[in-house]
């Protein structure tokens, strides 16, 4: 064995030279050499040809039944079509069901074959991933965009003809040519059905192109000009129905079709790989053709849907004009349109095929931001400033009414926030829907309906940065309900809206998440693509501004933004918690989380898809979710009334009857609790903590000096004092008096008398311990609550609702609990020591009995979970003369307050549900009238 290379290295003193061990070059599929025998390949080829000659060939019948019933082995050519790059071409089936070639092959090999065309001994080298689009891909993309408007009519004719009838199992070309001079041609096309595939010579001519013949016959082409593969339209419709439930599954469908075909006798073989591998089954022959068919068939569906919306919008505007003018106003027949405002970017005209009628396009004021020409209605000034010259809006935009008629279908606006406002929406972001930079951009083929434009979002971010840099104070005076001290304590305790915290790797991901705005019924309204590492404020601000541009000026909106606050104090929840705030009813603002739950299946798919395809997948899935929730909106209101209002209100009233406390007393105690917990003095210890620490340090110095003086006095008494000793003793006593004065001066600088008038006469040591006890209890409460949440995760795992037992994450949670538990117990013991010291100081300095002394906490976490003393703050002010308040002392009063608030929220929710049901019924009447008028007036085939 050869000596090690490390031994051959020269000696270098010190740390030495950095040595890297040589890496062994592994042989993989990329650089593996495959040796083939040319003679054996030619001999196999000759024998196969001889076998074909000996067998009796079976001539395939041109009838439908023969073509669909005979299993065939079709050879898939690996060459690419000019019209459809990357799409495998499939020649027609052979007559005998065996292998066939595109060109005839002689039975005996010629000698020149051994020298002129030797087989390759190496597999073709893998191509590197393209970073730019090829010219043929761009050309095919443009041809698809030009083809889409013309295939709408044959598609609708087939859908109308096949509606309510079983799917046909045979293929009959629907070629109709009225011009006798037109030369008829035929193209061999492989047709993919759900249970088999066939090869047919499809006739076509100049006036009826091949794509129109295929679509009229129920097959969708995979190429815009001369397709060689077509997919059943009924199969594509089934795929999109599956897509709405399970997500994008093109690869799964392609593999499933290939396996299913093989099991039923329709094998797919390859004919253009090598001479030896002639007739090898293809692994994935249908993925790329199916991908093209699914992508562009959905584009046709979007075109039809938006055309129908535009037609109904025209009728809707005619009805509105009739109501305003109070005179007959029949909409005129559309005369023409250039580029509709709701037209996807790949369509240049909304003209109906083979008709002279075109559809009118409503103004951008009635369309969502992605459908308007500028992607958002223009604003005169930055921000949500309404143009005084424009007509006053009395209703929400029609697209908002179509998305949620219960929220936006009303006509009465101007309710105050105390009454719940007019509209309740929720905003939240998700950083799981990331996109890898290496996945590429992709060609834009879809104009999203829910995603707002990036340029508008960036402009809002620029405006926010300019306002922050200007440091201009707002002219409006707003008195916050939550003290600034509580807000400061919460400022660094939340995850969302923290622009400085990077949640993803910006170098690896170009799109880092999604921001969504949903209505009170969890229906998505707008989406924003997050392309910054942190969750910046511009996304939420723009979504809110965009909403205000489409609603009346006097509409009042309550926005719930879940920022995931994990601060140690929850006093801000007394004002902002929807369950405690008057007017919001039972709306919790968690609708966005429920939307993320339904979109989680797209996280791995969209992460590696092209950027444009990612937007298409998410936008189309969100649209499917919105349509489903719109169809079930009435059931949602009924369920909310029965299960959300009636049941919860009955349970709350049972609690009120059991506590035997009057409603007036409970409301008074709730007001006292809010006043006590939202007072400025309740948050002052956080501001004084630094000064109290300084006082504590000086007090320790005074204690040490006094101990030293006591020791010196003892020594001098035993041995007799000397002049030097008296001098030292006098110096130490003077230093002790100076330190005491400094401590007193610093304590006065704390302004305890100003911040806490009730504590101005208390001993400084008592105040110091009291403040320290309060701070450590807040810390204990936060850590113990987090520990309880981890225990809940373990309990859910035991029940099968979270991570299974024994997984790595589950074990990590158990280890984290065991590591943090000793520190929590140490903090509890320290707090209990402070409670003992406070009790002793209270007796020593005659603290009034009306001042509440904190109670110790249990060191058993199981008992501490149900201990209400854990959630009580340490009081820093004496109690009133009547003693401890009932909301703090009596558990029944606290339960009664919660039940009373629940009854109030249920009553508010009931009133809101009645109002939303009225809005929905009114919208349905208007929508029914607009749809009927559109069908009678415009006579469009889209509405049949």
From TrEMBL:
Q: Which InterPro entries match?
A: CxC1, KDZ
Q: Domain named CxC1-like cysteine cluster associated with KDZ transposases: which ranges? A: 174-264
Q: Where is this region: Disordered?
A: 1-24, 83-134, 323-394
Give residue spans, biased composition: Polar residues. Answer: 338-358
- Superkingdom of this protein's organism: Eukaryota
A Pfam family that this protein carries is CxC1
Full protein name: CxC1-like cysteine cluster associated with KDZ transposases domain-containing protein
**Species of origin:** Ceriporiopsis subvermispora (strain B)
């Amino acid at each position: 064995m050869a000596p090690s290379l490390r031994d051959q290295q020269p000696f270098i003193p010190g740390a030495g030279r950095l040595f890297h061990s040589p890496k062994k070059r592994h042989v993989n599929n990329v650089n593996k050499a495959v040796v083939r025998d040319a003679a054996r390949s030619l001999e196999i080829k000759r024998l196969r040809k001889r076998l074909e000659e000996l067998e009796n060939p079976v001539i395939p019948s041109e009838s439908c039944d023969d073509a669909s019933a005979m299993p065939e082995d079709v050879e898939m050519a690996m060459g690419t079509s000019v019209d459809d790059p990357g799409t495998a071409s499939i020649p027609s089936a052979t007559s005998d069901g065996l292998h066939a070639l595109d060109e005839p092959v002689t039975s005996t090999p010629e000698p020149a074959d051994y020298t002129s065309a030797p087989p390759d001994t190496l597999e073709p080298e893998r191509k590197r991933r393209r970073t730019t689009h090829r010219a043929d891909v761009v050309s095919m993309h443009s041809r698809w965009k030009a083809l889409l408007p013309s295939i709408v009519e044959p598609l609708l004719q087939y859908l109308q003809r096949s509606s309510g009838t079983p799917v046909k199992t045979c293929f009959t070309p629907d070629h109709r040519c009225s011009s006798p001079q037109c030369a008829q041609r035929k193209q061999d096309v492989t047709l993919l059905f759900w249970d088999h595939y066939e090869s047919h010579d499809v006739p076509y001519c100049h006036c009826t192109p091949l794509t129109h013949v295929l679509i009229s016959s129920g097959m969708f082409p995979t190429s815009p000009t001369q397709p060689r593969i077509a997919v059943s339209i009924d199969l594509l419709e089934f795929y999109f129905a599956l897509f709405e439930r399970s997500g994008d599954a093109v690869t799964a469908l392609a593999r499933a079709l290939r396996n299913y075909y093989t099991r039923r006798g329709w094998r797919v073989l390859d004919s253009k790989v090598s001479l030896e591998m002639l007739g090898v089954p293809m692994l994935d022959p249908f993925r790329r053709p199916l991908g093209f068919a699914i992508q562009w068939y959905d584009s046709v569906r979007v075109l039809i849907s938006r055309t129908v919306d535009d037609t109904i919008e025209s009728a809707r505007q005619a009805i509105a004009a009739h109501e305003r003018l109070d005179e007959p106003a029949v909409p005129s027949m559309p005369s023409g349109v250039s580029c509709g405002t709701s037209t996807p970017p790949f369509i240049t005209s909304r003209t109906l095929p083979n008709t002279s009628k075109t559809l009118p396009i409503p103004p951008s004021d009635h369309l969502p931001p992605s459908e308007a020409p500028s992607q958002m209605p223009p604003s005169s000034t930055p921000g949500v400033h309404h143009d005084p010259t424009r007509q006053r809006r009395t209703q929400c935009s029609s697209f908002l009414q179509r998305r949620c008629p219960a929220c936006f279908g009303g006509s009465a606006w101007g309710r105050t926030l105390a009454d719940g406002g007019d509209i309740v929406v929720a905003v939240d972001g998700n950083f799981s829907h990331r996109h890898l930079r290496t996945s590429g951009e992709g060609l834009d083929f879809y104009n999203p309906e829910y995603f707002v434009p990036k340029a508008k979002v960036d402009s809002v971010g620029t405006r926010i940065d300019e306002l922050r840099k200007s440091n201009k104070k707002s002219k409006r005076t707003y008195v916050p309900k939550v003290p600034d001290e509580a807000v400061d304590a919460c400022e660094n305790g939340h995850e969302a809206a923290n622009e400085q915290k990077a949640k993803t790797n910006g170098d690896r991901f170009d799109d880092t998440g999604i921001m969504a705005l949903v209505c009170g019924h969890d229906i998505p309204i707008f989406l924003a693509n997050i392309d910054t590492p942190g969750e910046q404020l511009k996304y939420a601000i723009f979504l809110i501004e965009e909403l205000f541009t489409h609603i009346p000026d006097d509409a009042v909106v309550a926005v719930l933004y879940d920022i995931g606050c994990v601060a140690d104090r929850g006093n801000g929840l007394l004002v902002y918690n929807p369950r405690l705030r008057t007017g919001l009813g039972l709306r919790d603002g968690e609708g966005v989380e429920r939307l993320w739950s339904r979109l989680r299946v797209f996280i791995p798919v969209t992460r590696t898809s092209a950027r444009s395809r990612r937007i298409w997948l998410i936008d189309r899935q969100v649209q499917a979710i919105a349509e489903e929730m719109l169809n079930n909106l009435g059931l949602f209101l009924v369920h909310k009334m029965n299960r959300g209002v009636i049941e919860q209100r009955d349970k709350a009233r049972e609690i009120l009857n059991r506590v035997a406390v009057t409603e007036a007393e409970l409301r008074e105690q709730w007001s006292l609790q809010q006043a006590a917990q939202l007072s400025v003095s309740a948050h002052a210890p956080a501001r004084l903590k630094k000064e109290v620490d300084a006082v504590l340090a000086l007090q320790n110095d005074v204690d040490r000096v006094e101990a030293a003086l006591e020791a010196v006095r003892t020594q001098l008494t035993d041995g007799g004092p000397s002049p030097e000793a008296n001098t030292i003793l006098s110096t130490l006593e003077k230093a002790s008096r100076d330190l005491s004065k400094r401590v007193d001066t610093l304590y006065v600088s704390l302004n305890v008398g100003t911040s806490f008038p009730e504590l101005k006469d208390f001993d400084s040591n008592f105040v110091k311990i009291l403040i320290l006890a309060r701070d450590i209890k807040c810390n204990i409460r936060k850590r113990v609550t987090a520990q309880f949440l981890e225990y809940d995760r373990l309990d859910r795992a035991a029940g099968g609702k979270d991570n299974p037992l024994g997984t790595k994450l589950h074990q990590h949670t158990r280890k984290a609990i065991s590591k943090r538990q000793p520190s929590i117990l140490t903090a509890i013991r320290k707090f209990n020591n402070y409670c003992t010291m406070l009790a002793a100081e209270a007796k020593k300095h005659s603290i009034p009995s009306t001042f509440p002394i904190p109670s110790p906490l249990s060191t058993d976490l199981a008992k501490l979970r149900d201990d209400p003393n854990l959630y009580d703050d340490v009081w820093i002010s004496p109690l009133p003369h009547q003693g401890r308040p009932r909301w703090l002392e009596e558990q029944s009063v606290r339960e009664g307050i919660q039940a009373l608030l629940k009854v109030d929220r249920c009553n508010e929710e009931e009133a809101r549900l009645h109002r939303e049901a009225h809005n929905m019924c009114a919208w349905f009447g208007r929508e029914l009238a607009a749809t009927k008028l559109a069908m009678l007036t415009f006579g469009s085939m889209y509405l049949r």
